[in-house]
Amino acid sequence: MSVPVIAIDGPSGSGKGTIARRVAEALGYHLLDSGALYRLTALSARKQGVQFDDEASLAELARALDVRFDSNSDGSERIWLDNEDVTLEIRRESTGEGASMVASIQSVREALLERQRGFEQAPGLVADGRDMGTHVFPSAAVKIFLTASAEERARRRHKQLKDKGIDVSLAALSRDIEDRDRRDTERSVAPLRPAEDARILDSSGLSIEAVTNTVLDWVAEL
Ligand code: C5P
């Protein structure tokens, strides 16, 4: 029996993470935050002193990632890397930058592929990333490409980081997001783009509830 996969892709700050979590909760499905795996690979490299141009060692790190995804009693995430709590560290912009660098390496992407596919378990999966619908789960039941204007994405990311106690200027964040979008869109391996059969959803000006409900409506059409 095949397990339904809901693939949600899109650029940084489009709200994928929040929407994917809400949709997974509403459906009682598993959740894959694929960006976290790239962030963890970058963080692991930094901690172990592996350079970002050492592709073979990076791929090995990605393959051997010792990670545990937990949640706190209030439902918020808790992430462990080598038994160290890295919940806050992986969300820093510098880690996002590192993630987008290691994510452009083919062997790193291959090393993470099977781990990502391992999340496809009953009763279903909501997978959030850049290439969920195009590469990792090409036969996903529902594919969504979530976007929002660049200004809104920077504002949202700014608020998200502030709420976590991470201080960063809006201007610096806008620049980072622009750089990351460019790198993610222009890279030769698994570039960020909507799958041919993806439904595009522009969340600018829409509430989290409205976007979540639209996605749930599309799932209900299955
Ligand atoms: O989504 P998040 O901001 O956590 O992703 C961090 C980086 O990881 C992205 O900028 C992108 O370069 C990379 N990524 C990717 N493919 C995915 C998820 C994330 O290349 N499926």
How would you sum up this structure, described in words?
By secondary structure, the protein is of the alpha/beta class. The chain has 9 helices and 8 strands. The relative contact order is 0.23. The mean pLDDT is 94. It binds cytidine-5'-monophosphate. Cytidine-5'-monophosphate binds at residues 12, 34-35, 38-39, 96, 99-100, 103, 129-131, 180, 184.
SSE topology:
Layout: E1 5-9, H1 16-27, E2 30-33, H2 34-48, H3 55-63, E3 67-71, E4 77-81, E5 84-85, H4 93-102, H5 106-117, E6 125-129, H6 132-136, E7 142-147, H7 150-163, H8 170-186, E8 199-202, H9 208-220
Parallel strand pairs: 1-6, 1-7, 2-6, 7-8
Antiparallel strand pairs: 3-4, 4-5
The structure holds cytidine-5'-monophosphate.
Quick tags:
222 residues; alpha/beta; five-stranded parallel β-sheet; 48% helix; 16% strand; globular; binds cytidine-5'-monophosphate
Class per helix and strand makeup:
alpha/beta
* Cα-based radius of gyration, to the nearest Å: 16 Å
Number of strands: 8
The H-and-E topology, N to C, reads as: EHEHHEEEHHEHEHHEH
**Arithmetic mean pLDDT:** 94
Poorly predicted segments: none
Instruction: Give the overall silhouette.
Output: globular
User: Which small compounds were modeled alongside the protein?
Assistant: cytidine-5'-monophosphate
**Proportion of residues in helical segments:** 40-55%
In percent terms, what proportion of residues is strand? 15-25%
The CA-CA distance between the termini, in Å, is 15 Å
Count helical runs.
9
Biggest sheet strand order reads 2-6-1-7-8
Main sheet record: 5 strands, parallel
